[in-house]
Each structure stands twice: as structure tokens, then as C-alpha cells.
Amino acid sequence: MRISITTNRSQFPAVHLAISYLSASSNFHSTGMAAISENGTTGPPAVDDNVKIGFLRKEMNTEKLAGTAIAYDRHVILCYKTHETWPSRVESSDDHPLPKLLAAALKARKNDIPVKTLLTICEGREGTDLSDGDILLFPEMVKYRGLKEPGINSFVDEVIVNRKQWSTGIQEKMTHSHIFVCAHSSRDKRCGFCGPILIKKFKEEAESRGLKNIFVTACSHVGGHKYAGNLIIYSLQNNKVCGHWYGYVAPDDVPELLDNHIGKGQIIERLWRGQMGVPSMKKPQKAVELEQPVIPNGNDVVIEKNRDQISETKEDEGLISNIKEDGGGCCQGGNSGFSCCRDEKEVEKSVSKIDILWKKWEENEMVTVAVVVGVVVSVGVAYSFYKRLR
Asked: Within this chain, do residues 125 and 240 fall inside the same structural domain, yes or no?
């Protein structure tokens, strides 16, 4: 309970001295003592990573997700090393020639590629189902083994441009549901924190359910750091391969994604960001209301059919970005020129106008009073003169 006391300082100096002492003492106990840790040292309290960059951070579940996925029609996923070894810009790093050369080949043939094509990196571990150089294609659900640097151009020409089988590669049909979880730690700490935890949770929940048709792996940044945990699920639904993007995914959401999305083909609307083959402004299979247009903000290479619509995007130093967000907050203004703060000069102008009007009114009123007084005096003088004449 807080008590407010109003007194006159000059009349009650002792009371004010006591109040000042109690206020200072209270402030010390509420702030100073809280900074002392159990071992007796002082300093700011440690912030848990889960609160700072993880599933309990303030930005979790604060925005509508529907429509925030990148618009694309085909997904090329290159298996390459582990997510701990990926630099922030793995598709353009000189130290990682395979993803760099593949990205460059896709860019060089962008005018020949018939559909919007997205390139992403996923983990490739020797001795597993996915090894370095393996290529996964969606929606074809096809895997090509062992892409090497000399074969990149032929792969892009035959498979990506002409949509034929790769003449020098071994093609395998994929049947499992594939879950790609962003764990690109060198690109963003939130993805680096949330991704590995979600991958572990998916594997544990799938094993506890006896699901052997689920494949989970880490992938590079898919756009939207602030939506971490981010993931893409490719699965066969109604004889059609669907790729759905989810954001703000936490460990508690994993059972629902396995049971409802993969098990029953039901979209989890509160986490749904969009899907392959559906423009960002269209609705999913189950109605999701979109409040406003959204902007793709990933680093993945997107090759579109129309040269004027190329949206190869990166969040910081994009390859090509033809969409820009309005920036600026209060008193900063954006590209639209709108500011939520009032202009001080305009305030001064309005105040000065009021002052002028007030002064004019005062002047006019004084003139009116003077006239009235003058009339009264004149009448009085005239009346006195009239009486004398009588």
C-alpha cells in the first residue's frame, strides 16, 4: 500500500526530513539489495538464454505468422556438412565451394528456370541417409546422391532447367516425411538456440510413438529470425506433396505437429507461416485470415521465372531485393513520411497564433471598454449641463 502525504515544507520541516529518509531507505532495499547475489557479490542478475533468445523471449507469439513464408514452387536442398560449421553466408563463402558454386549456377540460369526455385542447405553426415553432396528435390520427393563440383552445371541444366533426370546422378525416390529445422547459429542466435532443441524433441517424440517414417534434420536460415523456432515439413497429403512452414514453434508444440499435421494432415494455424506453391497472400487449405501484406526476409536464394520479379533475398545484404520495408519509429518517420510525433515547430506556430488572437481580443476589448466609458462620461456631462440650463 502506498500513502501520499502533502504538507508545506516550510511549516513542517521535520516531517519532510523523515519522509525523505524513508523514501531513500525504501529505494535502497528495493533495488540495491536485489543486486546482491547469494555469494555476496553485486551485479546484474544472469539472464537465462531461454528468456533472452529462446522460447521464453518477449517477441514469441507477438505477430501473425500466416503469409510470412517465402513464395516458391520448387525447393532444392543441398546436404552439406553440419550446422555448426556453416558460416553466416554459407551460399557465398569461399571456404565452402560446393554450396557457393551451386548458388552461382542457379543465378546464372535464372532466366531459364521455369518455376520459382528455392535453395537451402541441410546437414549431411557420412554414414547416414543424407551425406555431403546429396540433393533433395521437392515437390518431386527425389534424392540425388553425391553432387560434386564438376557436375554442378550439368545438374542445373538437366534437372533444374529442363526438369529431366540427371544423366550422371543416382536418383532415389523419397517416401518419408521430412522436417527441416533452422539451426543456423552463425546467422542468428535465436535459431541456433531453438533449432537443436526442437530437433532433439522431434526425434524423441517420434521414437516414443514408434514413427519410423519421420526424418528430422537441421537446415540453414529460411527467413524470419524473429519467428524462431522455424521449420518446414514436407509430407504426402491426399496424394500430393505439401511443404508447410511453421514459426514460433516450441518443444510443447512438437507432439501436435506430429499427431495432427503429419498424422492427420491438419494445419496448425496459430503456427502456420505459409506453404510451397501458394503465394503469401493466399489462404491455406484451412482458412487463415491475413491482416496485411508481408515481406519475405530470408537469406535463401529464390530464382523466379520472370526476370523483373526476381526476389533473391537476404535479410542484411541481400543478393537482390526488390521489396523494402518502411522503416523508422516514433519521431523517426518512415519511407511514407509519416511520423507519430508532433512537430515542435508546428506546435510553436499554433501557440503563437493563439497568443496573437488573444492579444488582439484583449486590445479590442480595451478599445470597447474605453468607448463605453467615454459614452457614459459624455452622457453624464450632457445631463449636468442640461440640469443647469433648467
From this structure: yes
Residue 35: which domain range? 1-46
Would you give per-residue pLDDT tens digits along the chain (390 residues)? 444 445 454 454 444 444 444 444 444 333 343 444 444 444 555 569 999 999 999 999 999 999 999 999 999 999 999 999 999 999 999 999 999 999 999 999 999 999 999 999 999 877 678 899 999 999 999 999 999 999 999 999 999 999 999 998 889 999 889 999 999 999 999 999 999 999 999 999 999 999 988 999 999 999 999 999 999 999 988 788 999 999 999 999 999 999 999 999 999 999 999 999 866 544 444 433 333 333 333 344 555 554 333 333 344 333 322 222 333 222 222 333 322 233 333 334 444 444 554 455 455 555 555 555 565 556 665 666 556 655
Residue 138 included in any domain: yes
| C-alpha dihedral sign at 62, 65, 67, 71 | positive
Reported pTM: 0.65
Q: What is the DSSP string of 164-214?
A: ---TTS-EEE--SEEEEEE--TTT-HHHHHHHHHHHHHHHHHHHHTT--SE
The grid coordinates of residue 11 equal 511549516
With contact defined as beta carbons under 8 Å apart, do 102 and 160 qualify? no
